[in-house]
Amino acid sequence: MHAIPTHICVKIDFKNAFNESERAAMVAAFAQHGTPCVMHRYLKAHLRPRWCIYYLSGGKLVLAEYRSSQGGQQASFEASGGFCVTMLVLFQEADKILAEGGGCARATCDNLTLCGPPVLVWRALGNLKRDAFMRLGLVLQESKTTVFAPLGAPRLETKPPGVKVGVNVGTVAARAGIIGHGLVIAGTPVGDKDFVMNYVTM
């Protein structure tokens, strides 16, 4: 971002990513990516397209009338691994678009970051929102999607409604009320000097 300040950086959030991914799509993705046969059978067993749901009533487990077809247990290998493999193609498509302008798409599990010229970033974001929902039933939460532009407002004129500008506010005495602009990516603050200082002095 400092090397090419005309680029912008957008951090994306998918609603309940691990819990709402279609399990049938996860199993199919593992099969297509050449997962070893034994692992594919394991995942198919744990990520059946339709799963019985039980709830506790009167001290007994009762079979619900509906079935679950989405997600896996939070933090489990099959849920996180399934999501990552299923989303890989969409992430690669976004990366290809951004590469046209010297940008890139990088992901840490369900946290995807898009960097590049604004016009390409917004195109990639729009494609991800559309394709993740159509192919996988996932909802891209624009209310939790944030952007950082080193050159500020002039680079945000075409920002989609709902996408927020990434900011933080200093809280310690020496920095109280000072506003910084940036994003936290994989636990690392990326932004202007005030954003970084506010983050490390919280």
Describe the structure concisely for a colleague.
The chain is built from 6 helices and 10 strands; from the N terminus they run E-H-H-H-E-E-H-E-E-H-E-E-E-E-E-H. It is α+β, with helices and mostly antiparallel strands. The protein has 2 domains: 151 residues; 37 residues, no CATH class.
Secondary-structure blueprint of this entry?
Blueprint lengths: L7 E5 L4 H4 L2 H10 L4 H10 L4 E7 L2 E9 L8 H23 L4 E5 L2 E6 L1 H19 L9 E3 L15 E2 L1 E3 L9 E7 L2 E4 L1 H8 L2
Parallel strand pairs: 6-7
Antiparallel strand pairs: 1-5, 1-6, 2-3, 4-5, 8-9, 9-10
Structure description:
With 202 residues, the chain is of the alpha+beta class. It contains six helices and ten strands; from the N terminus they run βαααββαββαβββββα. The protein has two domains: 1-151; 166-202, no CATH class. The protein has helices at residues 17-20, 23-32, 37-46, 77-99, 118-136, 193-200, and strands spanning 8-12, 51-57, 60-68, 104-108, 111-116, 146-148, 164-165, 167-169, 179-185, 188-191. It has a five-stranded mixed beta sheet with strand order 4-5-1-6-7.
Key features?
202 residues; alpha+beta; 2 domains; 5-stranded mixed β-sheet; 3-stranded antiparallel β-sheet; 10 strands
Number of DSSP strand runs: 10
Count of spatially separate domains: 2
Low-pLDDT windows of residues: none
Biggest β-sheet strands, sense, barrel:
5 strands, mixed
Number of helices: 6
Mean pLDDT: 84
Query: Order of SSEs, N→C?
Result: EHHHEEHEEHEEEEEH
Distance between the termini: 23 Å
* Envelope shape: globular
Q: What proportion strand? A: 25-35%
Could you tell me the radius of gyration in angstroms? 20 Å
Fraction of helical residues: 25-40%
User: What spatial order of strands do you see in the largest sheet?
Assistant: 4-5-1-6-7
Helices and strands: which structural class?
Answer: alpha+beta
